[in-house]
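#structure-requests
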Amino acid sequence: MIAVIDYDAGNIKSVEKALLSLGQSAVITREPEDILKADGVVLPGVGAFGDAMEKLHAYGLVPVIRRCVEQNKPFLGICLGLQILFESSEESPGVKGLEILKGRVVRLPEEAGLKIPHIGWNDLRFPNQGRLFRGIPEGAYVYFVHSYYLIAEDAGIVTATTEYGADIHASVEKGNVFACQFHPEKSSEIGLRILRNFVGITEEHKCTQSE
């Protein structure tokens, strides 16, 4: 079972629907016991960095998320869920993120011909091998909706990048923590393959835990 964390950040039902379409059992929840007993956890979200952190604190979910990571449970952040895994964002000065990964989130640059927010399909490059992208060719297109982007401190954790006025760190992986700035649940067959890879990672992890 995969737990989809509900912290009023939007875009949660579409993630659940995508997981269900893969034949995966999924539950939308903010109950700590449901999250901690899940085989894998997804932190989706659209909205503002500061509001998201306020809600996570209000629902007591910050220590739950930290415990999941400490337990090496497969964990996937999507869009805003990627950004709040890091230290800070220009969107909400003075607000600390979860600080599980090191890096900062900055606003997309204002450039002629580029609209902000960035909404649409962009191709991916793979600077480092990532388990989310097994069987997916470089240059595959995925769907983005964002005004801010990640600059990870450690380039070694960046598994996918794209260009939109800047070199965007589009996906990261460290241990069993994964995150995507784009929306796999809205990225057609490529997105479903990415989610299928995450489901496979949760199943592999579950097998190793039971040995």
